Amino acid sequence: MPAIQNDPATGGDAPLDMSLRLERGGTVSDQVYDALRHAIVTVRVLPGASISENRICRSLGVSRTPVRSAIVRLAEDGLIDVYPQKGSFVAPIRLAAIAESRFIRRVLEVAVVRDAGAVWNATHSAAARAAIAEQARAIAAGESEAFFRADEHFHHIFSLAAGHEGAWAAIVQANSRLGRFHRLFGNKDRLPVVLQEHTGVIDALDAGEVDRAAHRLEDHIDKVFTLIDHLPEDLRRLVEG
Amino acid sequence: MPAIQNDPATGGDAPLDMSLRLERGGTVSDQVYDALRHAIVTVRVLPGASISENRICRSLGVSRTPVRSAIVRLAEDGLIDVYPQKGSFVAPIRLAAIAESRFIRRVLEVAVVRDAGAVWNATHSAAARAAIAEQARAIAAGESEAFFRADEHFHHIFSLAAGHEGAWAAIVQANSRLGRFHRLFGNKDRLPVVLQEHTGVIDALDAGEVDRAAHRLEDHIDKVFTLIDHLPEDLRRLVEG
DNA sequence: CGTCATCCGCTTGTATACTAGTGTCCCGCC
DNA sequence: GGCGGGACACTAGTATACAAGCGGATGACG
Fold first, then answer.
1. β-pairing, A93-94 with B50-51?
2. Looking at strand C, which nucleotides approach a protein CB closer than 7 A?
């Protein structure tokens, strides 16, 4: 199955099939939601791409109703902008929104990791290091999506340890915007550095030095923003601001 | 028009009209969403109340489609739980979720107010004190909804000053859960104290003492949780956990 | 050749009909 | 009287048809 993709040179609004496939059970609406969300977050469909309800429901062989339902939810998530009577489009990556998402994530995660430090034990440490190992494997294998999945898993461990599932939900929501930014502008050379930073946080936690862990995590998340200074010119038009 | 309300003694799932009215323009779906959300957050419909699509669309004189769209969005907000083929119900107030919302709000608002302190000026101060004055007026007039509205406005000022609109959106989302808790279990005797705490934060900001302002705000938000220790027995069953 | 009006196709929004599943209530049976 | 089964009302999920509005293309007119 060829991964037909919107041509970046046209601004990404070419009316092409986005090779969506419905996977698991559940309602059709949920399946469409998952498929669309995954396609957007992994930038298989680029910011600005046209999301036509008719095209999608034809492409998936379902009616407009569940597709509309999924789009409503994605609009609520801020991943799709709906312009009545004109069209729906994958939300652009706004630099202001990226800055806010980074702020939210940094503040919440630092607070979470401080709480996690109070109950940190060997089990948590082992889980975190396993996630780091998976990231290393993904880098070696060149599986970028596996890397991002393991990255999310790594960061989730702090929330799990601290019992802050609600905060994790908020972090994930902020991350859905950051995720697209990472995948578009992430530098492969930095991936090993990410692993070092992750390891540094866990080392500090294992040593019981919560403050140091918090500062390292803060620096780690802040580093994301250095990407903005080095936006490749050919991708710069995919962001606003 | 009598404000027919679900009977608390029955668990709130009496199939009664909830006196919804559509106000302003925009799409019908948006109007239904606003009306339902307002009714839920202000606990005019209690946690556990049945949300029947058919009943609502009959009551409002619209079709099921926009009602469904609104319910999907509210479910995404965590205010409604949808059980396929069984029914949709106003989400219960889960103590765990309240704790998480408080955590999120405290962490985010403290970080925001620190940034706001860096740019704090007389205009911000005047706006904040105006909001406090409005709260005092609302207390004197016994207009509880006006009080809550002014309270939200007060807290919004920090985000506006610091330019953290995204963080404010996250705060509002967490607050939609806390809001119901406040309205159900809030103690009227504490309202004047709230005003004092608000004034204390602004005083500290005006004096340029950002740390003190942050600590006062943190204490202020944490005080919410003292309500949990004094849940009236007759309302206790409205919460989970 | 330029400009304006009209038409047509596309979009999302809304209304209605149908499907599949669940829980209840009532009636018949034991 | 107690228990079991089936009809029935109700739920949300899905499909389809219609309405309203925007925009571009097209063709006539100046």
1. unpaired
2. 10-17, 20-23
Q: In angstroms, rounded to a whole number, what is the distance separating the alpha carbons of residues A56 and A69?
A: 12
Please say whether the beta carbons of B32 and B66 come within 8 A.
yes
Please state which architecture CATH assigns to domain A8-91.
Orthogonal Bundle (1.10)
**What span, in angstroms and rounded, lies between the C-alpha atoms of A128 and A184?**
26
- For residue B81, what is the enclosing H or E element? strand B80-83
What is the spatial distance, in angstroms and rounded to an integer, between the CA atom of A86 and the C1' atom of D30? 33
Write out the two tokens for A134.
């998976």
B45-84, pLDDT tens digit by residue?
999 999 999 999 999 999 999 999 999 999 999 999 999 9
The domain locations on chain B are: 8-91, 94-240
Which of chain A's residues have a Cβ under 8 Å away from the Cβ of B107?
A: 107-108, 111, 167
For tokens 């206790």, the residue is B236
Q: In what order do the strands lie in the sheet with A50-51?
A: A50-51, A87-90, A80-83
Contacts A–B by Cβ distance under 8 A? 65
Architecture label for domain A94-240: Up-down Bundle (1.20)
Q: Which residue of B has its CA nearest to A111?
A: B107
Q: What is the DSSP letter of B226?
A: G
Half-sphere exposure of B94 (CA within 13 A, CB side): 13
Torsion of CA A219, A223, A225, A226, to 10 degrees: 130
CA distance B207 to B212: 10
Among chain A residues 68-107, those with CB within 7 Å of any atom of strand C: 68, 82-88
Residue B87, nucleotide of least CA–C1' distance: D11
SS3 B143: coil
Half-sphere exposure in the Cβ direction for A97 (13 Å, CA): 19
Residues of chain A with Cβ-Cβ distance to B27 below 8 Å are: 84
Residue nearest to nucleotide C14 (CA to C1'): B65
Question: What pLDDT digit, counting tens, does each position of A42-77 carry?
Answer: 999 999 999 999 999 999 999 999 999 999 999 999
Q: What is the percent of chain B with per-residue pLDDT over 90, rounded to a whole number?
A: 71
